[in-house]
Task: structure prediction
Amino acid sequence: GAGVSQSPSNKVTEKGKDVELRCDPISGHTALYWYRQSLGQGLEFLIYFQGNSAPDKSGLPSDRFSAERTGGSVSTLTIQRTQQEDSAVYLCASSSPGRGNEQFFGPGTRLTVL
Amino acid sequence: GEDVEQSLFLSVREGDSSVINCTYTDSSSTYLYWYKQEPGAGLQLLTYIFSNMDMKQDQRLTVLLNKKDKHLSLRIADTQTGDSAIYFCAAGTYKYIFGTGTRLKVLA
Result:
């Protein structure tokens, strides 16, 4: 596709369940990022991939959060044993090295933990 | 840690200019960015400026960078109702540090 896509667009889950969020970056973009936007707050960096490796996982809030990227393309963010404070919009972005290093964002997945 | 700060709200009349301000702490940022987020939508990249530039103009948008004071601004000329949105400033090298966003309200 032309842009970054994410699925699902909305996810409602019960506390304690695991969830998987998917990101399809722009074709050819080697870098992929996950951010979280909580209600009324700015965006919080979670993790950065270059190819399939994650040189910076410093933003993952706890060991319940993990992410992987396969084939240098699709990425999955997994949250285990979800808590209510995990409710947020999870945004994925991708970029290609070069001038500007602009990150292009997907529409996000709105996660609600009941 | 690194921080980016913005004022929360700005209200302007249609046709006036809007100026959204941002301060940042990460002096190593190679580029600084402005994003727009409309209700229920993702982040749209508006423009960016290289850290060794003072100004960049792109149609109705003008970005000013004062690197000494670590101050970035976005000026929108002839503001329209369609410009109503939240504007985020971001700084960084690979990972971005975002401000909390400035909600721009354009009054008809």
About this structure: The two ends of chain B are 40 Å apart (CA to CA).
